[in-house]
Amino acid sequence: MDNHFIRRLFSKNEASVTVAVLVLGLIFAIASPNFMSGYNIYNVSRTAALYMFIALSQAMVVLVGGMNLSVGYIGGLSVIAVGYALQTLGLPNWVAVLIGLAIGLSAGLVNGFLITRLKLSSFVVTLATSFVFKGLITGISKGFPYTDIPDSFAILGRGSFLGLPLMLYLAFFVLSFIWYLFRYTVTGRRLLATGGNETAAKMAAINTDKSIVIANVFSGLFAAIAGICSVSMSCSAQPTTGADWMVYSFAVAVIGGTSLKGGVINSVGIFIAAFLIVMIKNGLVMINANYYYEQTYLGLILLIAVSLNPISQMIKSMRKKREFIGRKE
Question: Nearest-CA neighbor of 89 among 81, 98, 100, 79?
């Protein structure tokens, strides 16, 4: 195996993340025999699936050159809507799910509309709407969780097939759809073009405002799916759901290969990166590491992930400079 092949292999983001997952898995398996137990693998897979939806809700907006600071609160608002529909209104499960999805889609549409019509940055708009959504969560729930959730609602969050959680199959299906969307559809190509170079996209007669709205609607949809999955996992609708989603939404998306500059999204990378983040969290618990430093570890991992591309570009630039000097000599 020559050095050129190795460089090409590890230039692909998902290959590097896969190696990191395998190495960490081996380390944690040696440090804790329970790490590779069927029960733990199920829990890791289920949480990873949840993080995939959280990451997608951020990645869809980052893709078009923006960001969504209200991801967690859109998810939390969908959670409260589902809990209210099930416990207070006594509606069937499927109706509650549709209400939760509608809330997410509407919240995403509001974000997209404000960004494009008022010509404000996504940072400012989603920062403002995050307070609005948080206020609605507190106002509707009064700070109390909805715990009278039917056991039948836990099918998705607690069910399994062939030893793997149903949520993982759902996440795989959605990521496959995202891969197809950006590889084979006109809408996907327009979203990529908008994020890659908005000015050039406009010159190519692409309605960039429409692309930004679509991206935000997708973002709200995936945040809502994550919220519904969390209700199904715990059989309760907690008003605090989504409060810690911000770091995970960026960490999984960026480590998975989504470019913060826009125009790039990697479904395979997001799938693997979600496992990486969850394995780190789970492994630290397994080896009795100090839980209070968990956010520090995740922050350092995110910083390293963001730094990899600039460092790689710097190394390539230095190599080309040496080659140019060598040719001149």
Answer: 81
> 289, exposed or middle or buried, with CB in 10 Å at 0-12, 13-18, 19+?
middle
What angle, rounded to 10 degrees, do the helices at 38-62 and 166-184 form? 30
CA atoms within 13 A on the CB side of 323: 6
Spatial distance between the Cα atoms of 75 and 12, rounded to a whole number of angstroms:
31
Mean pLDDT of the chain: 84
Neighbouring C-beta atoms of residue 32, cutoff 10 Å? 17
- Tell me which of 19-23, 93-97, 223-227, 228-232 is least confident: 19-23
* CA pseudo-torsion sign 246, 58, 97, 233: negative
- Rounded CA gap, 55 and 211, in Å? 19
Residues 191 and 214 sit within 8 Å (Cβ to Cβ): yes
* Region for 38 from its dihedrals, namely left if φ exceeds 0, alpha if ψ lies in -120 to 50, beta otherwise: alpha
Largest CA distance in the chain: 81
pLDDT in tens, 262-314: 788 888 889 988 988 888 887 777 776 666 676 777 677 667 666 665 665 66
CA distance 147 to 266: 37
Closest CA to 213 of 114, 123, 73, 76: 114
C-alpha 205/C-alpha 14 separation (Å) is 33
pTM for the structure as a whole: 0.86
